[in-house]
Specification:
Shape: elongated
Structural class: alpha+beta
CATH topology of the largest domain: Heat Shock Protein 90
Number of helices: 3
Number of domains: 2
CATH architecture of the largest domain: 2-Layer Sandwich
Helix content: 55-70%
Radius of gyration: 21 Å
Distance between the termini: 83 Å
Strand order of the largest sheet: 1-3
Length: 134
C-alpha cells in the first residue's frame, strides 16, 4: 500500500508542475506578444514622423478583438484587488477597421486605467449606434 501512495503522490507532483509549466508558457507567450506590439508601436512612431505610416483595413469581429485584448491586459494587473472585464454586447459586431490602431488605442486606455486603479474593477466595452440620414 505504501508504494501505491508514493506513486500517487509522485503523479500529483508531476501533474502540479506540468500545470504550472502550462501557465508559465501561456504567460511567456502573452508577454512575447505584448513585447512585439511594443516594438511595432515604436516603429510606427518613426513612420508617423516620416509620414509613411500605412493603414491596413480589414473586416474585424470587434467582440473577438476586445476579448483578446482583455486576456492580454489581464497580465498587466498587479493586484488581485483589481478585476478587468470586457462587457460584450449580445450581438456580434463586424467592422471594416484598422485593427492594429484600434488595438493600440484600447490597450492604451486599459493600461492607463490599470496604472491608476488600486482596487475595484475596470470594465470596458462598446455599444452600436445606428444613424439614419435622409
Amino acid at each position: 500500500m505504501g508504494s501505491l501512495s508514493f506513486i500517487f503522490l509522485l503523479a500529483l507532483f508531476f501533474f502540479y508542475h506540468i500545470h504550472n509549466l502550462n501557465i508559465i508558457k501561456s504567460i511567456i507567450e502573452n508577454n512575447n506578444t505584448l513585447l512585439l506590439q511594443l516594438i511595432s508601436d515604436i516603429l510606427d512612431l518613426s513612420k508617423i514622423e516620416a509620414g509613411t505610416l500605412d493603414f491596413n483595413y480589414s473586416n474585424v469581429e470587434i467582440n473577438d478583438l476586445m476579448s483578446d485584448l482583455e486576456n492580454n491586459c489581464q497580465l498587466k494587473l498587479k493586484s488581485d484587488k483589481v478585476k478587468l472585464e470586457f462587457i460584450a454586447p449580445e450581438q456580434p459586431c463586424c467592422a471594416y477597421i484598422e485593427k492594429n490602431r484600434l488595438s493600440q488605442l484600447i490597450i492604451n486606455f486599459v493600461t492607463n486605467a490599470i496604472k491608476f486603479t488600486t482596487e475595484g474593477s475596470i470594465r470596458f466595452g462598446f455599444y452600436i449606434l445606428v444613424y439614419i440620414t435622409l
